[in-house]
Fold this protein.
Amino acid sequence: MTREPLLITAAVVGAEVMREQTPYVPYTPEEIADECARCRAAGAAMVHVHGRLEDGTPTQDRETFGAILRGVRERCDALVQFSTGGAVWMSVAERIDAVSLRPDMATLTTGTVNFGDDVFMNSLPMIREIAHALGRVGVRPEIEVFDTGMVDTALKLLKEGLLDGPLHFDFVLGVPGAMGARRENLEFLVGMIPEGSTWSVAGVGRHELPLARVAIELGGHVRVGLEDNIYLSKGVLAKGSHELVEAVAGYAAELGRPLATPAQAAEMLRVPAEPWLV
């Protein structure tokens, strides 16, 4: 098994989980930044963020993301990754509103997928528009993959020159309507990506921690957090994404994988080691 440092990404807030489901999900930029700092202390080298209004409504506005980015930069040295997925009902213009702030990375979902009862729409023109927006400001994309065709689309954009390799993939498994959270599915996806690529896995719901362990064993990286899963164990709410990061850090220690620092993660992902300031 590889002893390459393990990159833990903490997805501290998404667009779906609300306080009715768990009181621990952060809403305001200050709450999000505080949780990011706790995740960094627990071993995460990168944080993945969405924006929320004070009542929990998802937002992708530049002001909110700017406040989050400043807050994280003030509190810790974690790499900051913005979501360009937003919420399923948002336009592309809304989804990319904040990328000009130049976070360390931003997500790029390379296909349309059923998302529970909804549809997360990403037509090829939409994907190209988001990729162009990231390229214009020099922000490295993380390719979000919910099914196999999304890998092929990313490779198509790489061939077209719209993306710059080597790529970093995040395999999101277990979303209702998308690819299931099974080890054989993860191994198949890993087999599809070019040599030299890096990858992580984000298991959804009860699959989050078991798949994290599989990823560590396979030499990949891990995303955990309340965006994808609110439970530390069956029926036990995690008191924040930091508790999920702590669990993964424990697996890494058990399996002999040191944790990547933000500087090591920046080198691995080919992002600037010195962050842009807002």
